[in-house]
Amino acid sequence: MKRLVLWLAFFPLFTTLLTAQETKQMKEDYREPETEVIFPKKMAEMHLQDVTDYRPHNTGLGVGIRYRHTEEKNIYATIYVYNGGLETIADGIKSKSVVAVFNQAERELQSVDYTFLRLRNKGERKSPDRAYLSVRYTFRNNGEKFDTYLLVVGCKNNFIKIRYTFPSEKQQLGEKVLDNLLAGLDNVLK
After folding, report:
1. Strands 30-31, 38-39: pairing kind
2. CATH no. for residue 108?
3. What is the pLDDT of residues 26-39, one digit of tens each?
């Protein structure tokens, strides 16, 4: 019992240390060191905001590259690039590891305490050069309704996971910006 109490007391400290990260505001292109991919300051209608490096305590966690729409501040995307500690990750969406990462990411999304989280659709989302495993939900935040996508693909021996969110009332714009972002990402990942 005493061990359980100690574990519960120190668990928040351990998780904080394990998830320690470094966020850097970006004013220029970002070169991801593992893949050597250059993420531009501007991709489609989105501007690079910041990069969070999750690797200080676990190299498999990679980086999160956050973009925000140039005019609609409630349209944003985070592109995660990481290998999860695996040595080999197949390109595309068919490998067991890509499917497992997608399923785990969806479970994590469902576990967040969103108001009225609702599944909209699940399947594949295609860009000009590749397909992504994709799921789309709606949720409410401070009374406003949002759509959020989770997309995953294997590429350059890494997982590329995208979390893209926009106000539901801007459905047409949100879908167009996502299409443009994925096309821009295709160019970046060549």
Report:
1. antiparallel
2. 3.40.1000.10
3. 789 999 988 999 99
